[in-house]
Amino acid sequence: MPDPTSSPSDNKPLPPGMVLGPDGKPCKICTAFRNWTPADKPKRAQNGKQPAPGIAATMAAMAAGSSAVARQPDPDTRPEYCPPDVEQLGRATWTFLHTTAAYYPEKPTSNQRVNMLTLLRSLPVLYPCSHCASHLDTNIKENPPDVSGRVALSRWLCERHNDVNSRLGKLRFDCSIEKTDERWKNGPSDGSCD
Ligand SMILES: Cc1cc2nc3c(=O)[nH]c(=O)nc-3n(C[C@H](O)[C@H](O)[C@H](O)COP(=O)(O)OP(=O)(O)OC[C@H]3O[C@@H](n4cnc5c(N)ncnc54)[C@H](O)[C@@H]3O)c2cc1C
């Protein structure tokens, strides 16, 4: 697999944040929407409306109190009807995985353990962002899943997520069961999610 952050085979410099797929071409599902700028990309469609102003213009107009400009769509925000980018896919996948771990039994049957293992081991094979899948494959081989119960599984998953967070320069999450349950099962004690 080529280095996903190096230049494509035609040696043209890769725009910042664009990621290559296993075929050596820019990979849409591996790239954040705001960084997806292929050379032959048509101007971002605005459903027949005028193109939205840049962020700087929008911020300036908002500061000046212009509601007309403030209502324009943010060109860096993906419209609802679009397929996911690497970030939206990641958030949805983490939501599914952490929530599933939070509701996994304290004492799973052998059938539940086998199925959880199959789910987790399938991810590096099937996850559509190829470089994410490749990192996850290495990570899971070095840190085999602990499917012995929900506390152990929640921690294991939290640590794998933290490995990605660290690689992306994001803050690490407190992997105690109190914190993962608060985020993915119970909500905060102030009742704001009840
Ligand atoms: C398996 C996998 C591999 C990925 N690999 C890459 C990659 O190589 N490159 C890339 O650009 N993106 C990757 N992503 C996407 C990336 O992890 C993020 O999902 C994406 O950048 C959006 O980040 P976010 O800041 O919105 O929050 P996310 O990281 O998606 O987190 C969602 C929410 O989970 C909570 N949270 C954060 N950390 C933890 C934790 N450790 N445990 C429990 N809860 C937590 C927070 O409340 C956060 O708001 C990957 C996603 C997955 C599922």
Characterise the protein shown here.
The chain is mostly helical and 194 residues long. It has a domain at 86-186: Four Helix Bundle (Hemerythrin (Met), subunit A) (Up-down Bundle). It is 45% helix and 0% strand. The protein has seven helices and no strands. It has helices at residues 55-63, 67-70, 86-102, 110-126, 130-142, 150-167, 177-186. Helix 3 runs antiparallel to helix 6, helix 3 (86-102) crosses helix 7 (177-186) and helix 4 (110-126) crosses helix 5 (130-142). The longest helix has 18 residues, at 150-167. Flavin-adenine dinucleotide (FAD) is lined by residues 86-87, 90-91, 93-94, 98, 123, 131-132, 135-136, 158, 161-162, 164-165, 168, 170, 173, 180, 183. Flavin-adenine dinucleotide binds at residues 86-87, 90-91, 93-94, 98, 123, 131-132, 135-136, 158, 161-162, 164-165, 168, 170, 173, 180, 183.
Order of helices and strands: HHHHHHH
What would you say the CATH architecture of the domain at 86-186 is? Up-down Bundle
Bound molecules: flavin-adenine dinucleotide
Remind me, CATH topology of the domain at 86-186? Answer: Four Helix Bundle (Hemerythrin (Met), subunit A)
Corresponding CATH superfamily of the domain at 86-186: ERV/ALR sulfhydryl oxidase domain
Structural class: mainly alpha
Name of the CATH class of the domain at 86-186: Mainly Alpha
Radius of gyration using CA atoms only: 21 Å
- Helical content class: 40-55%
Tell me, what's the shape? globular
Q: Which spans of ≥5 residues are poorly predicted at pLDDT below 50?
A: 46-61
N/C terminus separation: 46 Å
How many DSSP helices?
Answer: 7
Tell me the major beta sheet: none
Beta-strand share of residues: under 5%
Strand segment count: 0
Mean pLDDT: 84
